[in-house]
Specification:
The chain is built from ten helices and 18 strands. By secondary structure, it is of the alpha/beta class. The chain folds into two domains: 2-156 and 318-352, Medium-chain alcohol dehydrogenases, catalytic domain (Quinone Oxidoreductase, Chain A, domain 1), CATH 3.90.180; 162-296, Rossmann fold (3-Layer(aba) Sandwich). Helix 3 (157-170) crosses helix 4, helix 3 (157-170) crosses helix 9 (304-312) and helix 6 (231-238) packs parallel to helix 7 (254-263). It is globular, with a radius of gyration of 20 Å. The relative contact order is 0.16. It comes from Arthrobacter koreensis. Residues 10-328 form the Enoyl reductase (ER) domain.
Amino acid sequence: MKAARYYDRGDIRVDELPEPEVLPGTVGINVAWCGICGTDLHEYLEGPIFAPGHGQTHPISGEGLPVTLGHEFSGVVYAVGEGVEDLEVGQHVVVEPYIIRDDVDTGPDSRDYHLSPDMNFIGLAGRGGGLGEKVVVQRRWVHPIDNSVPLDQAALIEPLSVGYHAVERSGAKAGDVALVGGAGPIGLLTAAVLKAQGVTVAISELSPLRREKALEAGVADYALDPSQVDVAEEVRKITDGKGADVAFECSSVQAVLDTLMDALRPTGVLVVVSIWGKRSDFDIHKLVMKEIDMRGTIAYVNSHPATIELVESGKIDLSPFITGKIGLEGLVDEGFDTLINRNETAVKILVSPSGEGL
């Protein structure tokens, strides 16, 4: 089978690999679609980050470079291992792509398995990935999805779960006003969850295409251009002078973080969703004087079932966020290059490892 593998910074190759073995307790999946994530771009430009370092192996997967990329993916079950009795061949699924130690409690009541030692991700630290034609995944991390949800849209369940967990962390509720800083994929999908839960949403974004996408998709009530307006002042106008109840930093840009702090009401909640590759020059005095509650969020924890329900019920339509589809051979030249150098022109680019559906 074909797979896109990460060898080093700036070095991704499409290799021919043997098909993975379906072991007891695992599920064999024909990958339908895999999204290109910002994390993949960071690995390509600045890594290894989540991928094992040079000459190292990941302590759980036991694998080192090269590793198959891709952690946002959907597919169809082609085989089930011994002991897997609640999934069947032909079923549509998505994957919660964790690599977690076997002794960690990952049961339905756990709220912290995603913070366990050496946690990492399928498609970054080994165990195959969604940028291969086939992948074998432990049953715990495979989630069935109704056939009424197209498989291309299902590939966005993983990043949507990031947004779901961020909203959950914020405590936002119906009737609140939220400001989302950055309308990239995670910002837009976080906004989608907020709207599905009855929150009024304003988005701050420089890209005209992404602002338009936010409004067209119905995930934002207001799309503000920070180069043209004072975003904090506009939010105060929307809220009768109070400020936003919650804010989500989805850009890893210092100016955005500063804007969100200014736009929040006293005792508001600021959630940092993006992965920062550098230290922030944060004005801690503003946090103190407004009694802002600042929270970090990473990935998701038992978030997939509720996220899938939002999509299956029709409360969230993922189709507007798919702006490109490519084959594996175009991964770098068509996919990565667009998202690195012309990211204002795209939201989510999906890859079909097998070429089906193109």
